[in-house]
Amino acid sequence: MKPNYLLKIIKLIILFFLLCMVIFITGCVQQTKNIKNSTSYLTLQTKEIKTEISRLESALKSEDESLFKPISIFYLALLYSHYKNPEPDYKQAFKNLEKYISLDSAKAEQKISVQYLLTLLEKIIANENLCNELKTLITTLKQENKSLTEKYKKLVIENQNIKEIIEKLKQLDIQLEKKRGGNLK
Asked: For the CA atoms of the chain, what is the radius of gyration?
């Protein structure tokens, strides 16, 4: 009886472990079904990017300290800076990549790629800031140019009036000279 009883207990333990493994595996499958690979993000079309960004953001809000949170953050950064994104947000992409590095520092090879992307995004952000400053400067200079153009037009009119007055004064002076010349003779 004892060997048969031990055999049943061993079978139950093995069955229990198999059942636990199946439960854990299905839990992982449910979490990974929403995660795409980076290649699929590179082939997204313009109209799909906003939808995918929203989907990933909501997935990140629902994931607390999930195993897939770092990779979701990485893919979100890719989408924010995607070349087909009609409204790229390079600052948000930069923040997400920094967060990704802080959460997933184990992958050294990918860390080099992420550092490269961070450097590129940093330069893009600097150029974007410079562009915004230059746009502001252009607007200011256009306003100043408009003001100076108006002043110039007023000065041209004033100059024309002064020329007319000088011409009238010359004519008056000539007439006075003629009268003086006629009186002296």
From this structure: 39
Return d(Cα 2, Cα 19) in angstroms, integer: 25
Give the relative orientation of helices 46-62 and 69-80 as an angle to the nearest 10 degrees.
Answer: 150
**Following CA atoms 89, 95, 100, 102 in sequence, which dihedral angle do they give, to the nearest 10 degrees?**
170
Q: Cβ distance 80 to 88 under 8 Å?
A: yes
Burial of 140 by CB count in 10 Å (0-12 exposed, 13-18 middle, 19+ buried)? exposed
Are 79 and 52 spatial neighbours (Cβ–Cβ below 8 Å)? Answer: yes
Closest CA to 36 of 86, 88, 87, 76: 76
Average pLDDT value over all residues in the chain: 83
What residue ranges define each of the domains in the chain, with the CATH number in brackets? Answer: 37-152 (1.25.40)
pLDDT confidence of residue 29: 47
pLDDT tens string 26-71: 655 444 444 455 667 777 888 888 989 888 888 888 866 566 788 8
- pLDDT of 105 > 50? The answer is yes
Separation CA 128–CA 177 (nearest Å): 71
